[in-house]
C-alpha cells in the first residue's frame, strides 16, 4: 500500500466521510406498502468499520465520558440507547445524560466548559468529538434488550411505521442537527427470543419498518445535503435470525452488526464460552455447531448478504460462574451460580479481569474455539472472556472473509488494550 495503513487511517476515513457527505445520496423511495418493498442501491466499499458502543449510563455510574472515547481508532460510535415511548415514538433514553448534564472544562472533549444557554450533555460532547475526529460517525441506537417491547406494535401497520420513523427523524436529526449520522435499530427480537415475544407478522413487518426508516432518512438527507446511515444489531442465534428476511433487509441497510456473543452465560448452569470463534469438538451443549461466531457469520453470508455489509460483534466483557468443580479446569462443568462480577453478577469488564483476575487466576486456551478462559480451583470461579490473542484472531477472520468490520460492546469495558489489538490487526 506504500505507506502503512495505520499512517493513512485518518486520511482514508476522511476520504470515505467526504464521499458520504458530498451529495452521493440513496435514491428516495415512496412509502412502501405491505406487498411492495423498494430497494436502495448498495454502497461502495469502505475500509473496515470499527464500531464501538457508548452507553448513556456509563457516564454517571462508571465515570466513562465522551472525552475518553478513542476516536482515532474508531469509525463509528453507537450511542445506547434511545427510548421508545408508550405511543410508539422515539424519545430520549436518559434526558439528564443526553442533553442536560453540564460539562466543565476538565471533563469536556475540547477542555472547554459548556455555555449556560447552549446544548449540554452527551449530545454536545458528541459534536465536539466529531470536530476533533472529522472522520467519525455517531449513530443513535434505538431499543436494546430492555427497550424493544414496543417494536412489534410499531411495525404492525403502515401508519405506525411512518409515525415512528417520523418521530425519530424529527427528534435526532431536526431537533438536534449535526449530532447523529444515522440510526442503529436494536430490536431484540422480532417474533420471539427477547424479553417479550412479538407476533409472527414481525418477520415481514421488520423489513417494512426498515424500508420506511430508509425512506425517511433519505428524505431528510436530501434536505440536509448528506447521507444518513441505517444499521441494525442482529442476532447470532439461529432460532432468532430465522425470524428475519435476511435476503431482503440488507438492501435498506448500510451494514449489519451481528451480536456474536452471549452464546453461553450464567442463565445456564454449565460453564461454557461467551463468544467462541469456532465450534469445539468437546462442547457438550445442545447445538455447538451453530453457537459460535463463524457459524453465525457464515449463515448471514449464505443468505446472500454482501460480506462488506456484515460486521462481527466482539465483547469487551466476560461471563463467570462460581462453584465449578476442578475438572477440565472448570470448563463445561456444572456450577452453583454466577460469580460476583464487575458491575452485576456474572459479568466482568475486560479491564477488571486484567487488573484483578489475570495476576492470580490460571489462563487456559481452547485451541478449537480460539478463546481463553480463567479458572481458580480454590473458589471454583470460571471466567470466559476475550483477550488480545482471541480478538486478534477475530480481526484476522474479518480480514480473511472480507467482512465489513467489527462492532464492540462496549467501550467502557476495555481500558484500551483490546481495541488497540483490533486496530493494529485491521490497519497494520
Description of the structure:
It is a single chain. This protein is α/β, with parallel strands linked by helices. It has a domain at 9-259: Alpha-Beta Barrel (TIM Barrel). The protein is 31% helix and 18% strand. The chain has 13 helices and 15 strands. The chain has helices at 9-21, 57-62, 95-100, 121-132, 151-154, 158-175, 202-224, 238-241, 246-249, 293-302, 350-357, 388-400, 417-426; strands spanning 49-55, 76-84, 90-91, 137-143, 182-186, 229-235, 255-259, 310-315, 317-322, 337-338, 347-349, 362-366, 371-376, 381-384, 405-409. Strands 1-2-4-5-6-7-8-15 form an 8-stranded parallel barrel. Strands 9, 10, 11, 12, 13 and 14 form a 6-stranded antiparallel beta sheet that branches. The longest helix has 23 residues, at 202-224. The chain is globular. It starts with 8 loop residues before the first helix and ends with a helix.
E-strand count: 15
Q: How large is the count of helical segments?
A: 13
CATH superfamily of the domain at 9-259: Glycosidases
Q: Spans of 5+ residues with little confidence (pLDDT < 50)?
A: 1-44
Share of helical residues: 25-40%
| CATH T-level fold name of the domain at 9-259 | TIM Barrel
Question: What's this model, at a glance?
Answer:
Helices cover 31% and strands 18% of the residues. The protein is of the alpha/beta class and 428 residues long.
Amino acid at each position: 500500500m506504500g505507506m502503512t495503513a495505520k499512517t493513512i487511517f485518518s486520511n482514508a476515513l476522511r476520504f470515505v466521510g467526504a464521499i458520504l457527505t458530498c451529495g452521493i445520496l440513496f435514491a428516495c423511495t415512496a412509502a412502501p406498502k405491505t406487498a411492495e418493498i423498494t430497494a436502495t442501491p448498495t454502497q461502495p466499499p469502505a475500509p473496515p468499520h470499527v464500531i464501538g458502543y457508548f452507553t448513556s449510563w456509563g457516564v454517571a455510574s462508571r465515570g466513562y465520558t465522551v472525552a475518553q472515547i478513542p476516536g482515532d481508532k474508531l469509525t463509528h460510535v453507537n450511542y445506547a440507547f434511545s427510548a421508545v415511548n408508550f405511543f410508539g415514538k422515539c424519545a430520549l433514553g436518559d434526558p439528564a445524560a443526553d442533553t442536560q448534564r453540564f460539562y466543565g472544562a476538565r471533563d469536556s472533549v475540547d477542555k472547554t466548559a459548556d455555555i449556560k444557554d447552549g446544548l449540554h450533555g452527551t449530545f454536545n460532547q458528541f459534536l465536539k468529538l466529531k470536530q476533533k475526529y472529522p472522520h467519525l460517525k455517531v449513530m443513535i441506537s434505538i431499543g436494546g434488550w430492555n427497550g424493544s417491547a414496543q417494536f412489534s406494535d410499531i411495525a404492525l401497520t403502515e401508519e405506525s411505521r411512518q409515525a415512528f420513523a417520523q418521530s425519530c427523524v424529527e427528534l435526532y436529526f431536526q431537533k438536534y442537527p449535526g449530532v447523529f449520522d444515522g440510526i442503529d435499530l436494536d430490536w431484540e427480537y422480532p417474533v420471539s427470543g427477547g424479553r417479550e415475544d412479538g407476533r409472527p407478522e414481525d418477520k415481514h413487518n421488520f423489513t417494512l419498518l426498515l424500508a420506511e426508516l430508509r425512506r425517511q432518512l433519505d428524505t431528510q438527507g436530501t434536505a440536509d445535503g448528506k447521507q444518513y446511515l441505517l444499521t441494525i444489531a442482529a442476532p447470532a442465534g439461529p432460532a432468532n435470525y430465522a425470524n428475519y428476511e435476511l435476503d431482503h433487509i440488507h438492501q435498506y441497510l448500510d451494514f449489519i452488526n451481528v451480536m456474536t456473543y452471549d452464546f453461553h452465560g450464567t442463565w445456564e448452569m454449565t460453564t461454557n464460552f461467551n463468544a467462541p470463534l469456532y465450534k469445539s469438538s468437546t462442547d457438550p451443549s445442545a447445538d455447538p455447531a451453530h453457537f459460535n461466531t463463524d457459524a453465525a457469520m457464515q449463515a448471514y453470508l449464505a443468505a446472500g448478504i454482501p460480506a462488506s455489509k456484515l460486521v462481527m460483534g466482539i465483547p469487551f466483557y466476560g461471563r463467570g460462574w462460581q462453584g465449578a468443580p476442578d475438572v477440565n479446569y472448570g470448563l463445561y462443568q456444572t456450577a452453583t451460580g454466577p460469580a460476583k462480577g464487575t458491575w452485576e453478577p456474572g459479568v466482568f469488564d475486560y479491564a477488571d479481569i486484567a487488573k484483578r483476575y489475570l495476576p492470580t487466576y490460571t489462563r487456559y486456551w481452547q485451541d478449537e474455539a480460539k478463546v481463553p478462559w480463567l479458572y481458580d480451583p480454590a473458589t471454583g470461579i470460571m471466567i470466559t472472556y476475550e483477550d488480545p490473542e482471541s480478538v486478534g484472531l477475530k480481526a484476522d477472520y474479518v480480514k480473511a472473509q472480507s467482512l465489513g468490520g467489527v462492532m464492540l460492546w462496549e467501550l467502557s469495558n476495555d481500558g484500551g488494550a483490546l481495541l488497540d489489538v483490533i486496530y493494529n490487526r485491521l490497519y497494520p
